[in-house]
């Protein structure tokens, strides 16, 4: 695990974008795992700039998103498909056929989860997986207590996660209580992982994920076991770390 502490959110976003751009240059048909939320927005903004100003092409890239709410159609402003389209996909040259986001409106959710896993396997796995981290240490919608070997599945969201996401909805009652999420085991099979975090609100989660024991109650702590994981944070998110050095 390589820890990189940058001065600002913009700096950490640029570093992550450079890493992904390098991997696309090496392998134009890269299989890229993507995350939603406010943290990766800086990364997507920089990748869009690289596409428009430096010719970075996503024409052969395949993407798999981590998760999606159950019960929200793709046209819903708070669906993760809508988020990805508005904040990233529509600004680059990606082929829609190569975009994978879990379908929260699938008639057979369990069957859809199995299909999603099989599609990842069919493409020989995810090359680079982007992750955010929740204040409680969750990755994707793998809440504390999730099995560290879990696969893509239905997950009930914790009260804290529902509360955290309520700011995107008119009320807490409107926040979906279940989601489809890649499992921790699925995430850990990615060849490389980039975990991003910014602000003091994530400082405790980063400390527990990077320096704490590996345990299901802090799902992100499993990345300590990954052979090629990059943790890129700003100084605020790193503020609780005992040892602030790259390693």
Report on the architecture of this protein.
The protein is an alpha/beta fold. It has 7 helices and 10 strands. The mean pLDDT is 95. It has a single domain, classed as Rossmann fold (3-Layer(aba) Sandwich). The chain has a 7-stranded parallel sheet, sandwiched between helices. It has a 3-stranded antiparallel sheet with strand order 4-8-7. Helix 7 links the parallel strand 9 (192-197) and strand 10.
Low-confidence stretches: none
Strand content: 15-25%
Order of helices and strands: EHEHEEHEHEEHEHEHE
Output the CATH class name.
Alpha Beta
Q: Tell me the span between the first and last alpha carbons.
A: 7 Å
Class by helix and strand content?
A: alpha/beta
Q: Which architecture name does CATH use?
A: 3-Layer(aba) Sandwich
CATH topology: Rossmann fold
Radius of gyration: 17 Å
Largest sheet descriptor: 7 strands, parallel
Q: Strands of the largest sheet, in order across it?
A: 1-10-9-6-2-3-5
Give a nutshell description of this structure.
By secondary structure, this protein is α/β, with parallel strands linked by helices. It has one domain: Rossmann fold (3-Layer(aba) Sandwich).
List the helices and strands and how they pair.
Blueprint: E1 2-6, H1 9-26, E2 31-34, H2 41-54, E3 62-65, E4 67-69, H3 80-87, E5 99-100, H4 109-122, E6 128-131, E7 153-156, H5 159-165, E8 178-181, H6 184-188, E9 192-197, H7 203-211, E10 229-234
Parallel strand pairs: 1-10, 2-3, 2-6, 3-5, 6-9, 9-10
Antiparallel strand pairs: 4-8, 7-8
């Amino acid at each position: 695990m390589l820890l990189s502490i940058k001065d600002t959110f913009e700096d950490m976003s640029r570093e992550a974008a450079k890493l992904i751009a390098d991997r696309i240059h090496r392998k134009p048909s890269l299989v890229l795992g993507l995350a939603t939320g406010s943290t990766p927005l800086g990364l997507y903004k920089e990748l869009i700039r690289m596409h428009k100003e430096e010719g970075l092409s996503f024409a052969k890239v395949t993407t798999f998103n981590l998760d999606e709410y159950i019960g929200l159609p793709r046209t819903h402003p708070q669906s993760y498909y809508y988020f990805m389209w508005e904040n990233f996909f529509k600004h680059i040259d990606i082929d829609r056929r190569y975009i994978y986001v879990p379908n929260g409106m699938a008639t057979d959710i369990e069957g859809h989860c199995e299909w999603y896993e099989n599609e990842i396997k069919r493409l020989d796995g995810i090359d680079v997986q982007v992750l955010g981290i929740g204040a409680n240490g969750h990755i994707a919608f793998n809440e504390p207590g999730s099995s560290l070997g879990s696969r893509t599945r239905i997950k009930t969201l914790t009260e804290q996660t529902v509360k955290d996401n309520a700011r995107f909805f008119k009320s807490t009652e409107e926040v979906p209580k279940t989601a489809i999420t890649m499992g921790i085991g699925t995430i850990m099979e990615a060849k490389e992982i980039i975990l991003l975090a910014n602000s003091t609100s994530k400082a405790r989660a980063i400390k527990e994920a990077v320096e704490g024991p590996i345990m299901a109650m802090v799902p992100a702590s499993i990345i300590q076991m990954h052979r090629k994981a990059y943790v890129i944070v700003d100084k605020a998110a790193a503020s609780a770390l005992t040892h602030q050095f790259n390693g």
